[in-house]
Amino acid sequence: MTGNMRVLVAGGAGFIGSHMTKMLRETGHEAVVYDNLSHGHRDAVSQAQLVVGDLADSRRLDSLFAAHRFDVVMHFASFIEVGESVSNPAKYYRNNLANMATLLAAMAQHGVARIIFSSSAAVYGEPGCVPIRECHPQQPVNPYGRTKHMAEKLLADYGRVHGLGYTCLRYFNAAGSDPDGMLGERHTPETHLIPLALQAASGRRSCVTVFGTDYDTPDGTCIRDYVHVTDICRAHLRAMDRLCAGATSGAFNLGSENGYSVREVVQAVSRVTGRPVPVVETGRRRGDATRLVADARLARSELAWSPRYPDLDTMIAHAWAWEQKTVGAESRRTGSVRVGGLVAASG
Ligand code: UFG
To answer: Which of 77, 231, 237, 247 fits a disulfide with 307 by CB distance 3.0 to 4.6 angstroms?
Structure first.
């Protein structure tokens, strides 16, 4: 393993970034978080310095890089909602692509030569075959996926000119939460399936909506590969070691290599929580691929990575602990308790 690294965690107040920051600190590295708090949370960064700023702000980035001699940048500060990217593509191209170019320019100017980039299974679009290998053709089916695809190209072009070493980690569906219970998923609005189903189980929402039941899958709903957030973070540590050891740039899938349909996920949430999860079925969500399942052999061999928590029920159990903590905090704040979907006064 490489020695202690000084890491800039762009987007380190968000879901995956905050877990990464915690893991970096726990493994003896220094971390500085740069986040505009548009989606992240100040209290998710308890173990590192937080600099509040935007990736579009090149002067701010310049002073940040001048103040810290970073060894590595980890870039989590992208927008991630597939549906929103379809309705508001400019927002995605601006942040996920233009702002990334600004970040890379600051890195080049200050001689920071390594970056680990949060890419996505969305680069593949509607795959011709599953499980998906890294060499599969990339034909993204939504603007979000296109920004990730183009960002990988940007890295390659930048790498050639500036000698930048990069690793693109193509996450499949990030899930679960910190097994210690300190961090979890807190998107506003929440759009992801597992936290929404958990909120339906806890009574924080009345039901979960199933988007599309007419896909070409055994039960008609989309299939995804869920990968535990801390497994994603562990892959970043491996990728950092590998880059620092002088390995060539590249891209790796991060998935558990198991596909679960939307209905199977909802059933698993009900099984793990012991609660009913009311479901409403509706039409397809625009931009959704039918089936995304990783072939993660390259990460296994090149990064010596394998998921510690590949089991869907374990991911859901960790996320359920976080959901219950959230419900508990909400009850203490409002003095109310939830019974099913109803709120009742406590005491
Ligand atoms: N879904 C529902 N109801 C909901 C929310 C989601 O049926 O209320 C379905 C979606 O249609 C999809 C599946 O559940 O079929 C998973 O949807 P998510 O929104 O949880 O996740 P996505 O697959 O859309 O996207 C996530 C990340 C992306 C990443 C992608 C890769 O947000 O960053 O996984 O698979 F690229």
So the answer is: 231
